[in-house]
Write a structure and sequence with these properties.
The protein folds into 3 domains: about 80 residues, OB fold (Dihydrolipoamide Acetyltransferase, E2P) (Beta Barrel), CATH 2.40.50; about 160 residues, 3-Layer(aba) Sandwich (Rossmann fold); about 70 residues, Ribonucleotide Reductase Protein R1, domain 1. About 35% of the residues lie in helices and about 25% in strands. It is built from 11 helices and 13 strands. The strands form 3 sheets. The protein has a 6-stranded mixed sheet, with helices on both faces. The chain has a 5-stranded mixed barrel with strand order 1-2-3-5-4. The longest helix is centred in the last third of the chain and has 33 residues. The termini are far apart.
């Protein structure tokens, strides 16, 4: 039974242990989320679900509601399941909602690996890759870089080298749908019972990859051509299980990736390590004497564009933190009135 559930859901022992303490409820995994309705998967199949009335009444923070990837405990009521509890999450991939608010959007939870997709044509962008890596490292999952559409690149080795230069310690693999074994490298790294979420900009070929892994056209795709101007038609996050038992989550393309939290130390490990060698502890890396960071830029060891992106992302995170603190103070004031 345990082995069956693990292969079906990607549930680990902690999830199963938590579920065993609530024998009157069914262990499920959220596969889709549409406003206040969910699609869940349990050992009986796929079902529609919603959270309990008590949950709706008592919960105001969107992050406390279920999302794709969550393991939940639910009760069957006629043709609908009622979700009563979320099992504690082991990882959370989230992004800031575009605009002036400090709201965040949960993309997926309980993921083991985040597959960052970039196509090997005009879409390839190391600065964007750095943002995806910072987002991924802060989630608690392990990033993998998948360079798609290898057939469209005149010099794939150059793009692989550029990706390696900004992703210390991250596996980089390539794929193409133009020949039979074009996905062999990706298939070889997928592990049964582990959960993989595919993220990237619109038109990089995520849905084509997921379709291949599922061996059927689960997701509609559109031709995007060499210039990646098209948009694939994934409009919501969806969780699927491959024939081999790996759990795969596809996500809509992200046109603009705004950070909410980011692991800067891991993503920019080279810069954070260099900064420790600066003469002054509070070095801003602008005009101070004995600045190791500026020295490496001047000597050509550190890419100035990478450094500028690091500074830009740090400022963005500082602004978001200040705004969140301000909104928190405003909320506390209104409570005490």
């Amino acid at each position: 039974m345990h082995q069956h559930l693990m292969s079906l859901f990607g549930a680990n022992e902690q999830v199963l242990l938590h579920a065993s303490q609530h024998k009157h409820l069914s262990l499920c995994r959220v596969t889709e989320h549409h406003k206040d309705r969910y699609v869940i998967l349990n050992q009986e199949g796929f079902f529609e679900a919603k959270v309990s009335g008590k949950w709706m009444y008592q919960t105001s923070n969107p992050k406390d509601f279920p999302t794709v990837g969550d393991f939940v405990l639910a009760e069957e009521k006629q043709d609908l399941y009622i979700i009563h509890d979320i099992i504690p999450r082991t990882s959370i991939l989230e992004r800031k909602v575009a605009g002036l608010t400090s709201d965040t959007q949960l993309i997926a939870t309980n993921i083991d690996y985040i597959v960052i997709c970039q196509s090997m044509n005009e879409n390839f962008n190391t600065r964007r890759l750095e943002r995806y890596l910072a987002l991924s490292w802060s989630s608690g999952a392990t990033p993998i870089i998948l360079l798609t559409k290898k057939d469209l690149s005149q010099d794939p080795e150059s793009l692989i080298y550029q990706a390696k230069s900004v992703s210390i310690g991250v596996d980089i693999i390539t794929c193409t749908d133009q020949h039979e074994d074009g996905f062999k490298e990706l298939e070889s790294i997928l592990v049964p019972h582990k959960t993989y979420v595919f993220i990237g900009s619109s038109g990089v070929g995520k849905s084509t990859v997921v379709n291949h892994l599922l061996k059927q056209e689960k997701l509609l795709t559109q031709e995007t051509g060499n210039h990646a101007k098209g948009r694939h038609t994934t409009t919501s996050r969806s969780l699927f299980i491959t024939k081999e038992g790996s759990v795969v989550i596809d996500t809509p393309g992200m046109r603009e990736l705004q950070l909410d939290s980011a692991d800067m130390d891991t993503t920019f490990e080279d810069i954070t390590e260099l900064a420790k060698s600066c003469k002054f502890n509070d070095c801003t890396h602008e005009k101070e004497p004995g600045c190791a960071v500026r020295e490496h830029i001047e000597q050509g060891y550190l890419d100035i564009h990478r450094y500028h992106n690091y500074q830009k992302m740090k400022k963005e995170l500082k602004y978001i933190e200040q705004r969140q603190n301000y909104l928190e103070r405003q909320r506390n004031k209104s409570k005490h009135r």
